[in-house]
Amino acid sequence: MSDFEHDPVMVDEITDIFDAVPSGTVVDATLGGGGHSYALLSRRPDIDILGIDQDSDAIDAALARLTDFADRVRVSRRRFDELDEALAEHGVSEISGVLFDLGVSSPQLDRPERGFSYRHDGPVDMRMNDDQQWSGGDVVNGYDRNELARVISTLGDERFAGRIADAIVMARPIESTVQLAEIVTAAIPAAARRTGGHPAKRTFQAIRIEVNSELDVLPDALDRAVAATVPGGRVAVLSYHSGEDRIAKQRFAIAAGACDCPHDLPCVCGAIQTVRVVRGIPKRASSAEQERNRRSTSALLRVVEKTEPMPKGDR
Asked: Are 117 and 177 within 8 A, CB to CB?
């Protein structure tokens, strides 16, 4: 499906990062249209890719795009926190690295019938996995006012969450994305609408994250990725939301052996270092890429490299 193809974010930086990993299997935990996988397979003839995605359209598109590397590509239709199950499905016991490119892809936004976009009219859907019963419509039309305000505030960083929740409840039933976008926009004070992009952006982001439990499953997914990676392998995360980045930072800090014990005394909390933070890499897309690809403007990259387990006192 050529309409699922999109410009992968920070693809040059990602390929540079995975240049250093051992030969073997690299997991593309958010396969999407296969853009990052294509670049990695082109650069490293000694690796193969296990792609994970819960979106069947994405998998079809990725397989079409990666035809030239068919003998080095396997896929698993799953959510990325099912990493262990995906590895077992394909008989993979250890991996050389994992890439997470979080959030929603440009093709998903561009398809009105998927309901992710405030710019295109469609059903209020927002499901990454279309086999899932729970959708954006259930959140918008089913949550009570306080729960709706909590979701919009905590998952969308929206300061007018209460006003927006009141407006949504008053306008129910809400059937389309354009209707929802208009309601959200009208609820935000006129002065605030003129800055920060589309007024409905944060609310749509919050509903999408809630529908797909994106922040709930991320900590376990990152822990599983670190555990499955061999020493010298790397785990990279591209995040687009403060909550995603906060979770990546926290889980990587724990894996790096973070503890509160005084540095001049033996560690009593049992902290074990299993990764090191990779330094000297770009954290954000270049200005040229941000001008070319609007999805890259909010991207933030974090990378760790797996090490042999090391207690704090031995470092």
From this structure: yes
Q: Which of 193, 211, 229 is the last residue of a domain?
A: 211
Number of domains in the chain: 2
Cα–Cα distance, 158 to 129 (Å, whole number):
26
Q: Is 199 exposed, middle or buried (0-12, 13-18, 19+ CB in 10 A)?
A: buried
CA distances for 127 relative to 33, 131, 134, 179, 184, angstroms: 17, 9, 8, 18, 20
CB hemisphere CA count around 135 (13 angstroms): 18
Residue 64 lies in a domain: yes
Last residue of a domain, one of 177, 211, 245: 211
Domain annotation covers residue 108: no
CATH number at 144 reads 1.10.150.170
Question: What's the pLDDT band for 2 if we cut at 50, 70, 90?
Answer: very low
CATH number at residue 220: 3.40.50.150
- CA–CA separation, 170 and 160 (whole Å): 16
Average pLDDT along the chain: 92
Is the separation of the CB atoms in 248 and 238 below 8 Å?
A: no
CA distance 127 to 213: 10
Read off the pLDDT of residues 260-305 as tens digits, 9 standing for 90 and up: 666 666 666 677 899 999 999 999 999 999 999 888 999 999 999 9
Query: Which residue range forms the structural domain that includes residue 132?
Result: 116-211
* Other C-beta atoms lying within 10 Å of the C-beta of residue 67: 9
Confirm whether 111 is domain-assigned.
no
